[in-house]
Automatic annotation (TrEMBL):
<keyword id="KW-1003">Cell membrane</keyword>
<dbReference type="GO" id="GO:0015730">
    <property type="term" value="P:propanoate transmembrane transport"/>
</dbReference>
<dbReference type="InterPro" id="IPR001734">
    <property type="entry name" value="Na/solute_symporter"/>
</dbReference>
<keyword id="KW-0813">Transport</keyword>
<feature type="transmembrane region" description="Helical">
    <location>
        <begin position="194"/>
        <end position="218"/>
    </location>
</feature>
<feature type="transmembrane region" description="Helical">
    <location>
        <begin position="280"/>
        <end position="305"/>
    </location>
</feature>
<feature type="transmembrane region" description="Helical">
    <location>
        <begin position="162"/>
        <end position="182"/>
    </location>
</feature>
<keyword id="KW-0915">Sodium</keyword>
<dbReference type="GO" id="GO:0070062">
    <property type="term" value="C:extracellular exosome"/>
</dbReference>
<feature type="transmembrane region" description="Helical">
    <location>
        <begin position="54"/>
        <end position="73"/>
    </location>
</feature>
<feature type="transmembrane region" description="Helical">
    <location>
        <begin position="129"/>
        <end position="150"/>
    </location>
</feature>
<feature type="transmembrane region" description="Helical">
    <location>
        <begin position="12"/>
        <end position="34"/>
    </location>
</feature>
<feature type="transmembrane region" description="Helical">
    <location>
        <begin position="387"/>
        <end position="405"/>
    </location>
</feature>
<feature type="transmembrane region" description="Helical">
    <location>
        <begin position="440"/>
        <end position="462"/>
    </location>
</feature>
<keyword id="KW-0812">Transmembrane</keyword>
<dbReference type="GO" id="GO:0005343">
    <property type="term" value="F:organic acid:sodium symporter activity"/>
</dbReference>
<feature type="transmembrane region" description="Helical">
    <location>
        <begin position="79"/>
        <end position="108"/>
    </location>
</feature>
Amino acid sequence: AKRASNAASFSVWDYVVFTLMLVISAGIGVYYAFSGRGQSSSADFLVGGRSMTAVPVALSLSASFMSAITVLGTPVEVYQYGAVFILICFAYVLMVAVSSEIFLPIFYRLGITSTYEYLEMRYSKVIRLFGTVLFIIQTVLYTGLVIYAPALALNQVTGVDLWGAVMSTGVVCTLYCTLGGLKAVVWTDVFQVGIMFAGLLAVIIQSVLLQGGISTIISDSAQGGRLNIWDFDPNPLRRHTFWSITVGGTFLWTSVYGINQAQVQRYISCKSMFHAKMALYINLVCLWAISICSVFCGLCLYSFYKNCDPWTARKVSALDQLMPYLVLDILSEYPGVPGLFVAAAYSGTLSTVSSSVNALAAVTIADLIRPYLSLSEKQLSWASKGMSLFYGAVCIGMAGVASLMGGMLQAAISIVGVVGGPLLGLFSLGILFPCANAKGGLAGLISGLALSLWVCIGAQIYPPRPENSRPLALVTHGCNFSGSANWTANTEENLERPFLADNWYSLSYLYFGPLGTVTVITVGLVVSILSGGRQTKVQSGLTILKEDLTFYKAYNILKAKVSIFLNARIYTNIHSHHFYPFQLLALKGFRWCRKV
């Protein structure tokens, strides 16, 4: 394959494709602003009038947290550390099971706009405010990273203007969130998830054609040690193993899909509990497909650059730029196709930012404005639009702060884990343990947050040693260039490292979330029991009920069908004079079980 020579290889047609994607996204917002009966109430604007169906909500759930970080960050993760990250698919299965069985029924039944309303019902107003403020900080930080990271990577490789890209995506997002509300966000997500798949598939198909088949790519990856999937080392300091990805990933993604406002807002916009649960299960298939595509893109990346790593050879200035570099390398002769990939990366950005802006507006209205100001529905609807506009501007501003953070994927997961873990613990404590009280909840939340922040900040100051992260070899002996291009020596090696640096701060970043969750539940239970939590009277519907569980419903349906079958058989046998005493005994036993 020929090598991309310079930034000029981003053609007019590429810009046309990219601009078209932005225009269609904005157009959907304008359509929902002016179509039908309009967004007359804040419920219409924030939760789509609770009338959405499963499929668009499922695609929207997938798009919301499958951002440009997935399109650009995951392939680089595989290129540098191997395909072990594909095990996140197991975590998705566990996450969907937990979210649909434990969290979704409670939030849907309560019919709340903000998940943090639950915290006041279950604990106290103080804990609700604490949870709301934590969510706002986490989401604004994460969204800043999501806007800035792809803009920087694409700017370096394709020459797309950095702040032009940041501003255009931010403004388009804010426009359709402010005009169209949740319905516009969901339908633009559906469009954008299609663009993301198209961009990834374009890279995969062209790579397979140029390399002479999938078998060549798999063979190259195996020889380079990239197919290191089954690593069962239980050491929690190891960055990626089977355990860190499945256990840590389950906690991480449950904090996103189980309790995060951006996602919960989508379930409760569904017209029935059945549609809400179906949305989660359809979303699971989408998550698998996107993860498999992005991991395979990483293997394609390695297959192309196994003998000449562009990063070590200084052809790109950061690892996050490798995917755009590959796209220009193999697809620049097809006008508009590199533009499609850039549109895919930015579709990821738009879908995540729009979800975040809509969720931030919902939380601010429900938790910080409605309880303290008596506003009419029309005023609340306008306030919702004003909040969307405000948070859009804040997130664009936060893109500047994001430039100070490290690798895309790890930085994003660290932000989600540090705040999401303790919040997941707080909700789990309230839903699963009727004895938990406000004192326990607050003590647990503060402890979990402090512990997560401590280890995360420590890991930023003292990055883990290579023996824990284990980056795989990247070589340059096949490159045509002069001058040395070796790995830069790690300056941390010469610094004095305290005992905690190699034991506590080296904890895998995927365990930041579980650490916070387990700490909140443990401390919360102990403090609740010591402060008289056993006498707590919990309002019905705030803790998990056996009627909410799909298995319990399936068991009841099966029991009813068996009962009908037995009754029919016995009735037939009595009338045909072929009646057996053991059938009567079975029927009596079954009826006794039903009473029990």
